[in-house]
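Usage

Read records sequentially. Each one opens with the input sequence:
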Amino acid sequence: MTIDAPSTAHLHDRTDRLEPKPILREGGPRLAMSLLAGDSVRPTRAQARAFAKFAHTCDPVADDLVAAMRRDRLRVRTQFEQALEHGIETVDDPAPEVAAFIATLDDVPFWVDYDKLDLAARAIARMPMSTLMAFTTAIAFPASYVSPRVNDVLLRGGDLAKRAAGRIVETVSWSMDCTAPGGMERFGAGTKNTARVRVVHAYIRAGIDRVDDWNIDTHGRPVNQLHYCVTMIPIAGVALAVMAAGHWYSRRERDAIVHLYRYIAHTMGVTTDLQVTSLDELLRLIWLAVWSEVDPDDSSAALTEAALKAVPRIYGVDGPGVANRIRSWAYYHFHADLARLSLGSGYADAVGVPRLSPMAALYPVWFARNLVRDRLSVLVPGGAGRAARRGHAERMREIAEVKRRLEVRPYERDEAVQSIRERDRELRARSA
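and closes with the structure output:
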């Protein structure tokens, strides 16, 4: 979204603040804004103008690496994987683009606090995978479909209904890698897999750049920094939003979780200007992203429907028989109700989320069970550490089983890249 440049006299007018969009006046967003922050996080028009400029900023280091891979795929890709897994010093005569990309992983920012990363990992590990899966499916994914400009990238991958379950499970798996103990250390699974996803984004960007029907004036660059915000904010927000399901964090833990997601964003290639350092900054960034990008349309509805319809398959209750049909209905509506309650009725109506079902009556029971379990694990001496270790082991075991059952392959977004390439070839053939 573009806005007119304010006069110099009003550029720093602290009273010229944005008016909230309806999505921030209801559901979970309203609760978060009223309880956790207040009006102080409401950005000014000048801040919105500065934020909008990032629609034309991407990730030059990753783009240069992908350009080198396209010129000499086997050699550069091999060097990249070698350096990623074992360090740049193990690569003979590395390509400059590989060295530059790996340097972004090796150069640790001064602000990184490893004790906070460890604390965040222990806190998040107490949350069972069932809660993470529910919040990712019902909140993070629908909330990331708010922008038609972002959705345009996703829709170019094609066959969303078929791939929805795999994309959700792979996203949960990636999130678990990042938040695992040591996950964001240099050779941790979170760091390495985030780097690979960053390269996939650059491949998608390169593919879309080659077609003629992407409107830079209205959409900005494909997979730009604003798109990163729209997709990263819900994932980071879910890590904190699970408090609404009874997984309570102390102030120190909340601060550590924000710090962890700042480092994840840094590793993903998010510009320093859009990396948040506090809960207030996260909420201000949500304000800006909502104001700039929220404009749900048919693509938002289609993607949300695909995510919710994937729920029975994710939980393995999509088979034949009366029992499976009942469980499928229950799982679907439990997640759809969570989406409606969290995102608000206005947005839920706009994207076709069903009205509340009787499954919503289970939420108080779910909250109470989780809260009792979580508080007991923390209050017992040494219990928090044991709960974190046990929770991490259980989560990794459960996600491995789901991925095996669904035959999920890492980085299924590679299929989106291939689809864009095929479309590019078709367009070139027509114009020849």
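Summary fields computed downstream for this record:
- The mean pLDDT is 86.
- The CA atoms of residues 183 and 430 lie 47 Å apart.
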